[in-house]
Every structure is written in C-alpha cells, then in structure tokens.
Amino acid sequence: MKNTMQEVAFAVWGGGLYASFLFVFTLAILWLNTLFKRMPPIRLHRQRRELAFVVDPPSRFWLPAPQNLWLASTAGLAVTASGFMGIIEIGEWLRGARESFPFGFLLMHVGGFAFFFVYPPLYDLICRVCKRERRTVLVPWEDVVAVCRFKPNLGPGAVTGFGWNFALLPPDPERPGYTLPGAGIIVGVGGLPGALAQWEYIRRFMEEGADAITPSAKEWGVEWYDAYVAREKAECERTNDSARWRRFRRKRLWEHARFAHWYTEYRMKHILPKAVPRDWLAEWSKPLPESQWAKPSQAVSELSEHLRAAYQRGEKFVEMGDIEKRFGVDVPKAPHASYPTLPFR
Q: What count of other Cβ atoms lies within 10 Å of the Cβ of residue 128?
C-alpha cells in the first residue's frame, strides 16, 4: 500500500507540474508565435508619402481564425488536461493497473499540439478557396489617423488598473468615422506623453527623414543582455558589493532573463519575418529619384516649419497642445477617395 500511495503521489505531482508547463508553453509560446506570424504588417514609404496597411476581408467568416484566443485556449486546455491525465494513465499502465496503453489520451495530447501547426495552413487554404484573402491598401500619409486611448481595467465594483494604447489607423473612405477592417497597429504606451512621443517619432521620420530621429536602443537579445550583466558585475566589483551582485543574479534567475532575451531574439529573427511575404510590395518599396518624391500639402509644410522653429526654441512636443490652433494653421479635410489595393499573399 505504501508503494502504491507513493506512485500515485508521484504521478499526481508529476502530472500537475507537466500540465502547468504545458499551459504556459501553449499560450505563451505556441499561441503567441501563431499570433505574431499572422500579425498584419505596416510599411512606410516617405518618398511616396504613403503607408501600406493589410486589410481583412469585409464580412465575417464562419471559421474562427487561428489566432483567436478562445480557440487557442480550447486547444491549450486539451493539451494541458491530456498531459496531466496521460501521466496518471501511463503510471497506471506501467504498474499493471491497466491492461492496454492509454492511446486515447496520447492522441488527444498530440492532436492538441498539432492544432497550432496544422490548423493555420488549413484555414488559409479554405480562405483561398472561398476567396477571402487579405488585401494591401496604400493610404496617403496625410490621411492616416493617430489615436491615443485610455484603457481602464474594471473589477467587481472598482477600477483595478489602467493603461494607455497608441494606434495608427487608416480611415475608411466609404464610411466616414470608421477605419478599414483589421488594419492598423496598436501598441501599449506609458501614458499620453508616451503616445505623443510615438506619434512625433513617426511624423518626423515621414516629414524630415531618418536623420531627424534618434535610433532606438536595442534592449533585447543575448548580446545586449550579456553586456548588461557585465556592466552590473563590474560595478559590483568596483564597489565591492557582493550582496548587490547576489541579489541581481537571483532576480535575473527568477525572471528567466537570459532565456527571455534569447527567445525575444529568436522571435525577431525567425517568427516575425514570417508575417510578411518575401516579395510583398517589392516594386512599391524601391527608392525613387528625388525628382519623383511626393510633395506635402501647404498646410503640412507650414506646420512642420512651425514645429522646427519651436524645437529650436527648446519647446517640447508633448507640451504644445493642439498645434493647429496654436500656430493658426487650418488643415483641410482629406478627400474621401478609394485607396489603391494590391494582393497581400
């Protein structure tokens, strides 16, 4: 009886740990990889003064998309439950309590994993048969809309937290006040100043070029992480603070920091590029002779001059408010004309 209870306890603990690993693995790695590989890209062409957005088909589809969270959660639950029960069933089979090997749980386990690799190409095939492929829309730069959104998190009877999002969206010429379905990009920011800074970063690139912006810091990847650890170690050795170094190492180990930076680098190099076809907009992306560059409107040129002068006076964009009212420039509304479209795949 003692051996039997030990075997049961081992199976339960082993199955529980394995199920917990599978739950994190399927949602944090497999599902996110599926999401990143299908994330619609955006391409900016400052010489043409255009942005390329990927637009979803206009109507709903009876088949859920592979990146659907409910669908991925169901597959993850199947993998997690089958992993937990499979260990227990295999343990029963190994000690002779079962006559046959538990193939049912094994098939459920393998099938749950196969969902993340088989369902996406099958979904794309069905969409091609039903002629529901995504399209690329070329939107003039001065039509693009930037939005900052305050996002409170509501709990039972109270606000439990809040966040801010910055969005870059293409308007729908046929439906004023709406954006094109499934197009655009949304990123989390630290607040309204962060959203304004994101927008001004993009605006200065499109209006003034790459020399007008500061290159972003590369705070990801194994090389950056190793240099960061080396700097911290050198500082601890310089101050002879061994306790600080131990706290630093424990915290990094608890955060799985090296693995996180390695996997971020892996995703940047091998997962995210799969969201863009190799020949996507190859002709459109070529540089143009300066004589063929698109010219900004008079109102935009006037606003850019006012902003450059304000920067030279030491003013900050996040503190200027409505620059159209401040500088007395009336920007006419963009005409509502259909945008040129191209196939995405």
A: 11
Length of the chain equals 345
**At a CB cut-off of 8 Å and minimum separation 6, what does 246 contact?**
none
Mean pLDDT of 200-212: 87
Please name which of 228, 223, 221 lies closest in space to residue 260, comparing C-alpha atoms: 221
Q: 182-195: per-residue pLDDT in tens?
A: 888 888 887 888 88
CA atoms within 13 A on the CB side of 264: 14
pTM summary value = 0.76
Paired strand residues for 185: 168
Q: Residue 317 is which amino acid? A: F
The alpha carbon of 299 is separated from its chain's Cα centroid by a whole number of angstroms, namely 34
On whether the CB atoms of residues 326 and 315 are closer than 8 A, the answer is no
Distance between CA atoms of residues 308 and 303, nearest Å: 9
Q: pLDDT digits over 79-120, tens only? A: 887 777 777 777 666 666 666 766 767 777 777 788 888 889
**H or E segment to which residue 135 belongs:** strand 135-140
